Amino acid sequence: GAAKRKRVERAATMAPSKTTTSVESRVIEFTCLALIAAVAFAIRLFSIVKYESVIHEFDPYFNYRVTQLASEEGVDAFWNFFDSRTWYPLGRVVGGTVYPGLTLTATWLYWVIQNVFKLHPVKVKDVCVMIGPLFSSFTAIATYLMVRQVRSRGAGLLAASFIATIPSYISRSVAGSYDNEAVAIFALTFTFYLYLKSIRTGSMFWCVCASVSYFYMVSSWGGYTFIINLIPIHALALLIIDKYSANLYTAYSTFIINGTLLAMVLPVVGFNAVETSEHYSGFFVLAIMNGVALVKYLKKTLTEAAYKKAFRLFVTTSVALMGLVSLAVITFAMTSPTLRWSGRSLSLLDPTYASKYIPIIASVSEHQAPAWSSFVNDLRTAIILMCSGIVSCFRPLSEGSLFLVIWGVLSVYFSAVMVRLMLVLAPVACCLAGIALSDVLEVLCRSCHEEPANAEEGKGASASASPPPGKKKKKGKHAQQQSGDVSGYGKVPRPMALLGLSGIIFVLSYHLFHCSYLGGEGYSSPSIIMQSRTRDGGVYIFDDYREGYSWLRENTDYDAKVASWWDYGYQTTAMADRTVLVDNNTWNNTHIATVGRAMASPEKKAWEEFRKLDVDYVFVIFGGLVGYSSDDINKFLWMVRIGGGVYGDIKERDYIGEGYYRIDEKASPTMLNTLMYKLSYYRFAEIVGRDGQDRVRGTKFGDPDVSLEYFQEVFTSKHWMLRIYKVLDEPVLTKA
pLDDT at residue 121 above 70? Predict the structure, then answer.
């Protein structure tokens, strides 16, 4: 008794006041969040440190080009911009076919830097390059806010640290990755946070904020359809488990109505917000929720007898009305061959759809199904803790935790169908991992802080606690609850707790090391600049893309038309400033199929096709000399498939030699006679010899005596990666 009193008095003396503890915890919390945001920003700067401030990949070049226009000539010029230098001779109405969120965000930031902070040396390109790291910091903060609201502050900080360093998100937000996903993931996470907050508070203010955030998400990325389907599924699940509330009705109805109206303002969306099948689920659940609300109201206000009559009338009327509406919607959907579903949505619902009917979607590497190892490499520790996080969300199950569970399950499916959607799985995997790890750390830390009783106190306690003779000692959970002693729950022995904490520190340290390595080596290399290691450990740079585009810009007429596969359209327009036939927008499948058919045709037929399209130059990407695997020969079968989907004279089997696609002596005669083969291997034997090998395919090339009559080689880059040919007005005379 005396020892226990002394221990209590000592603890009371040492314990700080509640106010002091609260202030200190807030300062620590804010400091940790600021450090996490700084890490999220810094870990994405490897590309600038290792290379230079340069735009990455393909799509970002178009985004950069229109951002230049908007910042120099104004936003009105952006909305009214007709791009005559792409999709020749059709052109493209940019303002009505692009998601403007990214462009307008960068334009606004550039205006603030120039006019508010007066940092005049900053260029538009610098702002575009830094968009990814900047919004990654914002995403970490939004993730923290959402998980803190669902579970706790500690879980929020852990989730923010995961999203700041997870490789899957780094790959889309490194410095220079000026693509829609750079801002869209922040918009997605912040929208979910505001929606859950509006459910918790029932405040119209937060409902409107969630709708505005959703509008920003719609303006930034076509993946907004994930939000407009996930939120109705969550609302329907709450109705099924009888968690309807006035807050839910206020939040959901406001979000769906305002969000839809705001989305219709954007030209790229327009009436698709109410006409396509991807958006119907929101209206369907809204109708059900209104019915539930009416039933709840009638039950609350009417007598039991009147309620039964009103309920019977309501069910009869609702069934008839819903039947008529459903019949009208189905009839309207049947006016479209795809039932008003987009091709990408059908590819998610049926993974084989794109390969059967839309090869241009299947041809994109990021639309392929990922390897199972990608989940571990790109999500690392988060995917391992994700399952535990789902279990933790059921203890207890709230509106927010149920939302994370549904988000996680759906994201796993979609990311397993399309590797690009690993980006949607990353935030929820981090949220669930943060919750799981927070629960584990709470148990381990509580176990470490428990002071072990000394031997004397233990003996005294055991003696005083011994039951008198004739009475049985109570055992089990019931006895502990009656005595009020719950110290044995949620704890482990202190040595095990210390060992567990040491293991967690090691795992998190390795996680940070792995993510930093991938951020610096795996995802920082721009697609236009490549590097390799020399034998002495030095770095060797391959800059063939910029070399070739510079040649086009400096040595061809301003109005020259350039043909290539659609992958390089944005880069050609932005870096070479020349007119192209097709680009990465892929809105006109027939135009792309025409280029594919020309590449798969014999030289004379291809020449005739290009002459009809006023093409002056054709270039191909060839990696056979240096081992660059993403060249046009490896993409050639997709050109055949896309061309054959429109033109019946192109058959894939004609390009297959002895069972599979090959370029060696056993390649099919049709393949060896195609324009693509000739433009790629022309004069290649002069470099590697007649018996030399293609380093990508690992085999000897089939025809070392390639000759050209209708095309003239005008430029080949240093490593033969980019080869440019002029389309001749007349064929050259060949020697007899």
Answer: yes
Q: Give CA angle at 521 (520, 525), nearest 5°.
A: 95
pLDDT at 10: 53
Q: Is the peptide bond preceding residue 495 cis, with omega within 30 degrees of 0? A: no
pLDDT the model gives residue 451: 56
Q: What is the pLDDT of residues 164-205, one digit of tens each?
A: 999 999 988 999 889 999 899 999 999 999 999 999 999 999
Share of residues in the chain with pLDDT > 90 (%): 59
Residues 6+ apart with CB under 8 A from 215: 259, 262, 263, 265
The alpha carbon torsion through 563, 567, 568, 571 (nearest 10 deg) reads 140
Distance CA 692, CA 681 (A): 12
Judged by average pLDDT, the poorest of 18-27, 82-91, 180-189 is 18-27
Cα 656 → chain centroid? 35
CA atoms of 601 and 609, how far apart (whole Å): 9
Distance separating alpha carbons of residues 731 and 709, to the nearest angstrom: 5
Question: Which residues are 657's β-sheet partners?
Answer: 660
Helices 124-150 and 181-201 sit at what angle, rounded to 10 degrees? 30
Q: Which of 241, 322, 333, 324 is nearest to 286 (CA)?
A: 322
pTM recorded for the entire structure: 0.88
Distance CA 253, CA 139 (A): 26
Q: Distance (Å, rounded) from C-alpha 129 to C-alpha 55?
A: 6
Contact (CB, 8 A) for 642 and 359: yes
Sheet holding 561-563, edge to edge: 579-580, 561-563, 617-621, 722-727, 711-716
Q: What confidence score (pLDDT) does residue 14 get?
A: 47
660-671 burial code (b ≥16 CB/10 A, e <16): ebbbbeebbebb
Q: Residue 57 in contact with residue 365, Cβ under 8 Å?
A: no
- For 416-426, b where at least 16 C-beta lie within 10 A, e where not — what string? bbbbbbbbbbb
List phi, psi (to 5°) of 621.
Answer: -105, 125
Joined tokens for residue 213 = 């955030």
